[in-house]
Amino acid sequence: MNKTEVLSSSEFSLHHHPPPPLQRSVGIIGAPFSKGQSKDGVECAPSKLRAAGLLDRLRQQGCAVKDYGNLTFENVALDEPVNGSKSVRTVGSANQRLSEAVKAVKRDGHTAVILGGDHSLAIGSIHGHTAAVGPVSVVWVDAHADINTPLTSNTGNIHGQPMSYLLYELQSKLPPLPNFSWMKPCVSSRDLVYIGLRDVDPAECYIMKLLAVKVFSMTQVDQLGMARVMEETCDYLWDRTKKPIHLSYDIDAIDPSITPATGTPAVGGLTYREGVYITEYLYQTGLLSAVDMVEVNPLRGRTEDDVRSTVSTAVDLLLGCFGRRREGNHLPDYSLPEP
Ligand SMILES: [Mn+2]
What residue spans carry the Polar residues bias annotation (predicted)? Predict the structure, then answer.
């Protein structure tokens, strides 16, 4: 049998044929939430992403789009730090709300898009996603691992902790947290892949080794190239069974020369092209089931251009998740005008 014959049809089509028609029904949730960190502005991102034409552009490339609007979050009074972690009750109640919203979007049959907001929102987003569809694979694209426990965090910002709340394997390391009793861990460390890491705390490094988490840091991106990183990501995730994919995309994964308007920029990041390639590749799998786009902070840019470049890159990444191809797209019913 030659090489071509042993490839499955889906693997073959990935490289040699135009993609099959994929589900491109998108449900958008705005989550203007910023209490997982301390900088103002990240709550403005959903309206900026909409104002940049995200919904129209998704429709123009053939997607059916339903906008579920922006969630509103309550500010819990007297939300004193717990074990050093800040705004725990506010973050807990916001994520409970988001979890319910994501669950509803998934039950309506859409691919869910969550416009953050800071990365603490991944707790509710991934929780709601799994509540609706069962186990998922998580592809976490970020400069940071966001896997501190409340007891290892140096800053007390929960946007650096969401993965520890979600993993089954870390439950015994978490103290009880007010307003988090609604959530149960829902992700296995074997179903998690990190891409783009370059600013990892010692405790996070230890946790990832302890749990043997699959990591493609910037070193591996440099060594292998993004094409190989994505192949290996999917080979790894599909080793047991193909599950729906949750892409949690922190805009700070991209190099701050391209996306400076974010709260915790880290030099040496992904190029625009590497960042977009991730989305194009995951679209082609047909398994993309929910996408977080987080940490765009329009108040952190030094100039208008900083903000524009960050927002438009975030929009391009989302378009890539839903079939935008750099070789161009046309609607299936397009026909050439006759003279
Ligand atoms: Mn993050």
Answer: 1-12
Q: pTM of the entire structure?
A: 0.93
Q: Is 79 annotated as a binding residue?
A: no
Distance CA 135, CA 154 (A): 31
The single residue listed with the structure tokens 């302890």 is 210
The answer to the question of whether 252 is labelled as a binding residue is yes
Judge contact between 258 and 210, C-beta under 8 A: no
In a domain, 200, yes or no: yes
Q: Is 333 contained in some domain?
A: no
246 annotated to bind ligand = no
233: nearest Cα among 299, 314, 181, 288: 288
Please tell me the distance between residue 144's alpha carbon and the centre of ligand 1 in angstroms.
6
**Structural domain contains residue 203:** yes
Residue 82 belongs to some domain of the structure? yes
Q: How far is CA 31 from CA 7, 10, 97, 159, 234, in A?
A: 41, 34, 10, 14, 29
**Catalytic status, residue 250:** yes
159 carries an active-site annotation? yes
Residue 316 assigned to a binding site: no
144 an active-site residue?
yes
CATH number of the CATH domain containing 179 = 3.40.800.10
Q: What is the pLDDT along the chain (339 residues), one digit of tens a residue?
A: 444 444 444 444 444 445 445 558 999 999 999 999 999 999 999 999 999 999 999 999 999 999 999 999 988 999 999 999 999 999 999 999 999 999 999 999 999 999 999 999 999 999 999 999 999 999 999 999 999 999 999 999 999 999 999 999 999 999 999 999 999 999 999 999 999 999 999 999 999 999 999 999 999 999 999 999 999 999 999 998 999 999 999 999 999 999 999 999 999 999 999 999 999 999 999 999 999 999 999 999 999 999 999 999 999 999 999 999 999 988 888 899 999
Query: What's the gap in Å between 160 CA and the centre of ligand 1?
Result: 7
Domain of residue 69 covers 3-321
What is Dmax (Cα atoms) for the chain?
A: 73
Total domains present in the chain: 1
